[in-house]
Design a protein that fits this description.
This is Protein-disulfide isomerase. 52% of the residues lie in helices and 12% in strands. With 224 residues, it is α+β, with helices and mostly antiparallel strands.
Length: 224
């Protein structure tokens, strides 16, 4: 897939739906057209936006559900996934105590590209690819050049076992990209997400916190 085609997909998705709080980080848009709140689908509920798979791991029947809102280009999110998520996974996810849902936030076009690659592997590979995106975040974002970023993201996808044909299809899927942006908007508005990472625990939104505080919060919800 050509660089121009990839860019056209992302520009179309972002301009069509907007990002209601990206005005706080205008430099991150880097060449993309700015857009205003109140796009055509800004008021849609997540249930009305088709074909976006909820990425979750753990026990879907658990009494406690944790939703993480994060961006693949956010350094604080990378730090969380390097230092906190492994503990959270060992203590609460693998043990079946919680259901953990990951929802992407789009500060910029590369963040959306990363999501397209991560989701390209389907539910079974998503969290593995997401982990690689965070682990190699500095590498694939280092140049700031669109073509280089695309190349580096493709490398990660291929390490995860995706073929060129699969990556071409995922990165050129305009309908999926626009649905993902609309879904992000609706969910973020519902939970008042203003920074990343943020967490929604049984419907209540919290900002990033040390693991000790996170553990205390979850234990309270679990009644432990």
């Amino acid at each position: 897939m050509s660089r121009s085609l990839l860019i056209s997909v992302i520009v179309a998705a972002l301009v069509a739906f907007g990002a209601f709080w990206l005005t706080s980080t205008p430099k991150q848009l880097s060449g993309l057209e700015a857009y205003q709140p109140g796009g055509a689908n800004a008021q849609e509920s997540p249930a009305e936006i088709a074909d976006v798979t909820e990425m979750q791991i753990g026990n879907p029947d658990a009494d406690v559900t944790v939703i993480e809102y994060a961006s693949f280009t956010c350094p604080h999110c990378a730090n969380f996934h390097e230092n906190v998520y492994p503990q959270l996974k060992a203590d609460y996810i693998d043990s079946g105590k919680i259901n953990f849902i990951y929802r992407e936030v789009y500060f910029d076009a590369p963040g959306l590209w990363g999501s397209l690659v991560a989701r390209c592997g389907g539910e079974m590979r998503f969290f593995g690819i997401a982990g690689m995106l965070y682990e190699r975040q500095k590498e694939w974002l280092a140049s700031g050049d669109r073509a280089v970023i695309e190349t580096e993201l493709r490398k990660i996808g291929k390490i995860a076992g995706l073929s060129d044909d699969q990556l071409n299809a995922c990165l050129s899927d305009a309908d999926n990209a626009t649905n993902m942006v609309a879904w992000f908007q609706a969910n973020s508005q519902e939970h008042n997400i203003r920074s990343t990472p943020s967490f929604v625990v049984n419907g209540k939104t919290y900002q990033n916190m040390p693991y000790a505080e996170f553990r205390e919060l979850l234990d309270d919800e679990l009644g432990e």
